[in-house]
Amino acid sequence: MEIVKHQQSALTKTSQHLPIYEDASDVSVQHLDTYNDTGYEHLYRILWILCGVESVRTGVERFRAYSNLIVFVAPGIKLSIISETQPEGWVLQLSPSFFSRLKYENLMIGSADMLSTDGSTPKIILSPKVGERIHSLAGMIDELAGSTIENRENGIVSLVKTIFVYCESKCNLNLDKNRNHHEIDVVSRFKQLVVKNFTLKHKVSDYAKMMNITPKYLNQVVKQTMGITAKQVIQEQLVMKARQELKFSNQSIKEIAFSLGFSDPFHFSSFFKEIAGESPTLFRNR
User: Fold this and answer.
1) What residues make up the domain containing 236?
2) Same structural domain for residues 159 and 199?
3) Is the pTM value of this prediction over 0.85?
């Protein structure tokens, strides 16, 4: 039986409501296990779910929740979390004035524009790796909000912008009323398997075999649901990891190639240049 999680009176962390700019509610983070939407309907809200949520209600719309689901809620819409177990995730809350400043600073990102969209609530299932990064960014926003660091406002603006940038990843899955739940489950499972195995398995057929479906069907579902091929999903994970290692590790390009499952460093360099538009050496040095 589904139970609507009762609004809790417990206070969230003090840092979640400390002032940013002039207004204490300009930017704040609430964790889902203590989430209370009362008094926050006038704000823009970005909900991220890790687990423990059965469904979400935004105004009169109710929809199924998924792991790594992110939901954009505009002011004036009531947000309710429906769960049977303790939910994990958070809600990032932005005041209209803060959001206006983001737009004024030329934040030309589709995910930000979604917050101003009329009609059904915009929602995305994030790639697991993107979900991890966005979770870390929210933690950094929460930490900065509770600090006295000089110019923390600029840091928070940059972190919020980065969240929007990550929401534009091709490997994210936009949800709408016409989505087939079975196809969403197939794509979600595929993406989870890719995150766990992309350094070992580079072929679509490898993942289709693990899922007991044909490569043709997997490609068809991924293409219909995400607008990109299953191969592109694997490639994006490889390139994201390669970029990270090239910029933030001391490993040689040869070592990075081997760690990502390439038997030939020249093949890795050719692959990276084809996807990223420049060689690993140029990317590392710029």
Assistant:
1) 181-285
2) no
3) no
